[in-house]
Design brief:
- The chain is 47% helix and 16% strand.
- An 8-stranded parallel beta barrel has the order 1-2-3-4-5-6-7-8, surrounded by 6 helices.
- The chain is built from 11 helices and 8 strands.
- α2 packs parallel to α3 and α6 runs parallel beside α8.
- It is an alpha/beta fold.
- It has a domain of 169 residues: Alpha-Beta Barrel (TIM Barrel), CATH 3.20.20.
- It binds pyridoxine-5'-phosphate.
Length: 249
């Protein structure tokens, strides 16, 4: 294997702390407190998805995350005018463009950058010109990767949902698609991230893919934190990632 990304980063997605808070409409549990604890426990970055319906993270959470966390913030958002205005106001380290409506998605659930090319080209350029690192959340598919390269993004994040949900031989096929797409993207000079649906077991084979530089993980970590605490759930994930990354090829 010719290339191994030296450090596989873990971005902790804190959306589902906000989901629990929002179930009662108050301020507890606070996702910013979770972000601070996650950083203390070794998260390399924090990810949060500002949805159009504000189902989890709110605008105020974004303001506080930018002010209070000492690691890069990866703001996931739909490619809408409203979200662009918010991103340009806050200028997070990175913006990951994700689909919000069905017609923006591929069948695998990633952002369809092929059909969205003409909308995305000026959109990506505007964020890039503001100094924001743009990432596209795409399926591990050749046409999507090649179009991401034409869009000039520095990062793609591969949707691992279909891999995590697959059973039997289908899972190996999904892993092989992730491997091929990562190697293609890496060869095109794009940094590769991955995420969605990962847990202690599914993360191991994904972490073994040498071109991946970052995994963004939320739901499982927050769910596990209910039983063992957030720091411990993050430590467990780091250990599982290290098992995959350090496995002999
Ligand atoms: N990456 C992206 C782009 C996402 O939208 C999400 C949340 O769906 C995640 C990573 C984290 O996924 P999960 O919460 O399933 O770990």
């Amino acid at each position: 294997m010719s290339f191994i990304h030296p450090h596989l980063r873990l971005g902790v997605n804190i959306d589902h702390v906000a989901t629990i808070r929002n179930a009662r409409g108050g301020s507890h549990p606070d996702p910013v407190r979770a972000a601070i604890l996650a950083v203390e426990a070794g998260a390399d970055g924090i990810t949060a998805h500002l949805r159009e319906d504000r189902r989890h993270i709110t605008d105020d959470d974004i303001t506080r995350l930018i002010a209070e966390i000492e690691r890069p913030l990866n703001l996931e958002m739909a490619a809408t005018d409203e979200m662009q205005t918010i991103a340009l106001r806050h200028r997070p380290h990175a913006c990951c463009l994700v689909p919000e409506r069905r017609e923006e998605r591929t069948t695998e659930g990633g952002l369809d950058v092929v059909s969205g090319y003409s909308h995305l080209a000026p959109y990506v350029a505007r964020l890039r010109d503001a100094g924001i690192r743009v990432s596209l959340f795409i399926a591990p598919d050749t046409a999507q990767v090649e179009t991401a390269a034409r869009l000039g993004v520095p990062v793609v994040e591969f949707h691992t949902g279909p891999y995590c949900h697959a059973a039997g031989p289908g899972r190996a096929d999904e892993l092989a698609r992730l491997a091929r797409a990562s190697s293609l993207a890496h060869g095109l000079g794009i940094e590769c991230h991955a995420g969605h649906g990962l847990d202690y077991e599914s993360v191991v084979d994904v972490a073994a893919l040498p071109e991946l530089a970052e995994l963004n993980i939320g739901h499982f970590l927050i769910g596990e934190a209910i039983f063992i605490g957030l720091a411990e759930s993050i430590r467990g994930m780091r250990a599982a990632m290290a098992r995959g990354r350090n496995r002999p090829a």
